[in-house]
Amino acid sequence: MRNLNERFQIERRFRPEIEGLRIVAALLVAIYHIWFNRVSGGVDVFFVISGFLITASIISKIKKDNELSARKYFGGLLKRLLPGALTVIGVTSLLSIFLLPSSILLKYIKEACASLFYYQNLQLAYSSTDYLDKEQMKTPLEHFWAMSIQGQFYIVWFLIFVFVVYILKKVEWIKPEKLITFIFVVLFILSLTFSIYQTAVNQPFAYFNPLARIWQFALGGLMFLHLNKINVPDLISDILGWFGLIGLVLTGMLFDVGSVFPGIASLWPMFCAVLILLSGNRPSEYGVERLLSSRPFVFLGGISFGIYLWHWVILSFYKYKVTDNVGLIDGIVIILLSIALSMVMTSYIEKPLRNNVIFPKKPFSIFYSLNIILILILLSSYLVQSYEQSKIEDLANKDLNTISEAYPGALAENNFKNSKPLQTVITVKNDKSDAYKDGGMVTEGSELVIKKYGEVNNPKKNVLLAGGSHSSQWLGALQQFAKKEDILITHICRSGTRFTTDQQPKEAMEWMRKLNTYIEKNSKGIDMIFAPANVTDNKDASIPEGFKEQFKKMGNLDIKVFAVKDNPRLGLDNHPIEQYEKNNDWTMSVANINSDDDWKDESISNVAYYNYNQYITPNNIFHPIHGNIFVYYDSSHMTDSYSRTLGPIIKDDILRELDLK
After folding, report:
1. What is the spatial distance between Cα 283 and Cα 265, in angstroms, rounded to a whole number?
2. 632 DSSP β-pair partners
3. In sequence order, which ranges of 483-608 are alpha helices (DSSP H)?
4. Residue 362: phi, psi to the nearest 5?
5. CA 438 → CA 432, 442, 452, distances in Å?
6. DSSP tally for the chain: helices H, then strands E
7. What is the pTM of this model?
8. Cβ contacts of residue 407 below 8 Å, gap of 6+?
9. Radius of gyration in angstroms for the set of CA atoms belonging to the chain, rounded to a whole number
10. In this structure, are strands 560-564 and 451-454 parallel, antiparallel, or unpaired?
11. 3-state class of 16 per DSSP?
């Protein structure tokens, strides 16, 4: 049997323009993060380059050793990837002990562990599909999702090539390049097809799903195998190369990458990367490879990994402690500081560790141990600060009349904040309605979950609390008097869903269909539906047509609708807990959001409209704390503690509409 070295016809050669392309991708990521607050498509190019380089590296190892050694393969990867990654995680965790906003401390701990063990992409995949978690501030390690996918991909590639070596040793006539090409083409087609499908049905999850990304690595592998075989005339090569570079730079402007990738739109930066590398086959005086192969680009490409790791950490702490809006000079400083830290890390940590100059015995065990110690310190800090959560649970089990006058909440005549707030900035994010605690709140899928509160045994009236999280947030207020007044509260709510006939995500539409079927079947036993009347944000605050149609449907079933004007949504950039941590006196005007002009539609006879926003944002000013209770736990949802203080305010209106008064 011939040696595998003789059977491979492809040779590995250094392509300096790839180093240049790496720094272009890294700088695009940083620039779009810093000044445009969006993503650029640069990470997608990183994945293609990784596929190219690791395929080249593995084939080189097979040709040299006539096998693929797990020890050599993973040992080399660990020496190349872990020093920088563990250093950045360690420094970030150390800084977080002193600088991280307490409100995202637990989220950081989860993501630090996920980053250490290469499952950060999965951590973010599940949190990004959580409607409420999306409203939390981003952590300084969020960008490690790309590292995690890369690590998972390296394992998959190892298994693929173990299979390839096995087949090649068993079957003499198979050509290695053809076998590998076949595998990569199959992976490319299957993964791209899945990526397009999942992006259409659940884009936030698809963005972090390795199965929806593997086609990008496969494309890189195919480029290594076949790129040198493609030749085009010099002039066309130059044009294609520059077109590819310009197209890549403009990707973040041409596409809303964060909401349409990694589906079919992500073929664009892949196409641009292919054109750039294709032009490298025909080096010329005016080609793009001349720029990308220049000494500065090659040098920066060599430290691009560190630049990518550091820029987001620096940017995150800048936003925590300085301002959310980064100016031109400050942004340039962030990039330069990222480059400087990457140079230092490469020279004094990565290279010595690779060469076993420092910590020659089990260096990565030491690094991992230090990181875990820092995370444990953060966890201890979190646990110490979390003891006041018991106050919230006590409040939920008390009748409003027994609550201390120190915590009047919505009953305060003005912005009453003269003592320590009921919740802490850490625990407030968990201050949600009982439906979140007993499984009554649907967060994904289309299953109807029905939970009953108040007087469940012998009620006089039944109020259906229906819709999304902006409906569920009123549960606490209704619970304050429901049992005493013999009212049953039937809770059927799903996060990220509205009580409307308007178009919504597929699962939300299916859930609404099931809800309408439930209401139709049980209409005789439903006395009133409690739901938001609109969506109060910077757009039109009037009642959307889909809401009106849904209300009319209920009228046809002879069901009254208690329609509450939606509470103001502050926007993701105005998370009140995070703003409060920066400045205890922070407030926000909601006059433009909370307009009272023509928001009602009196033509729908079965609807009673109510507006309680004067108790949530008095004088159209939002205060994070009102009546010594945090009003919101994120940028648009009331805390359960505050909602309960609205009970006496809405009680008479509810009883009147139910003919109980």
Report:
1. 29
2. 638
3. 506-521, 545-556, 576-582
4. 50, 55
5. 11, 11, 11
6. 29, 11
7. 0.82
8. 395, 422, 627, 628, 629, 641, 645
9. 29
10. unpaired
11. helix
User: Is residue 425 a contact partner of residue 581, using CB atoms and an 8 Å limit?
Assistant: yes
- How many CA atoms within 13 Å lie on the side-chain side of 570? 29
On whether the CB atoms of residues 461 and 487 are closer than 8 A, the answer is yes
| Dist. CA 40–CA 465, nearest whole Å | 41
CATH number of 412-657: 3.40.50
Ranges for all domains in the chain classified under CATH 3.40.50: 412-657
DSSP state of 410: G
H helical segments located in 209-321:
214-226, 234-249, 251-254, 257-260, 267-279, 288-292, 295-302, 304-321
Task: Give the C-alpha separation, 272 to 248, whole Å.
Answer: 6
Residues 182-224 pLDDT 10s: 999 999 999 999 999 999 988 889 999 999 999 999 999 999 9
Over the stretch 42-101, which tens digit does the pLDDT of each residue have?
999 999 999 999 999 999 999 888 889 999 999 889 888 888 998 999 999 989 888 888
3-state secondary structure of 70: helix
Quickly tell me which residue has 């309408």 as its tokens.
516
pLDDT of residue 401: 46
Rounded Cα–Cα distance for residues 190 and 586 (Å): 51
Give the residue from 577, 570, 501, 504 showing the smallest Cα distance to 537. Answer: 570
State how far the Cα of 155 lies from the Cα of 150, in Å rounded to an integer: 9
Task: Give the closest residue to 116 by CA, choosing from 76, 82, 140, 146.
Answer: 82
Q: How far apart are CA 646 and CA 644, in angstroms?
A: 5
The identity of residue 162, as a single letter, is V
Residue 618 structure tokens: 């008095």
Residue-level length of the chain? 661
| Amino acid of residue 43 | V
- Distances in Å between the Cα of 652 and the Cα atoms of 167, 474, 645, 646 are 78, 15, 14, 11
CA distances from 605 to 313, 553, 565, 658 (A): 55, 12, 17, 15
Distance, in Å, from the CA atom of 19 to the CA atom of 33, rounded to the nearest integer, reads 21
The amino acid sitting at 321 is: K
Quick one: which H or E segment has residue 626? strand 625-626
Tokens of 414: 């003005």
212, 194 contact by CB (below 8 A):
yes
**Is the CB of residue 498 less than 8 Å from the CB of residue 504?**
yes
- Which tokens hold the place of 192? 């791209």
Assess whether the previous peptide bond of 262 is cis (omega < 30° from 0).
yes
SS3 for 452? strand
Residue 157 reports pLDDT greater than 70: yes
Residue 120 identity (one-letter amino acid): Q
Distances (CA, A) of 260 to 6, 48, 290, 496: 44, 18, 33, 19
Q: What is the C-alpha separation between 601 and 6, in angstroms, rounded?
A: 80
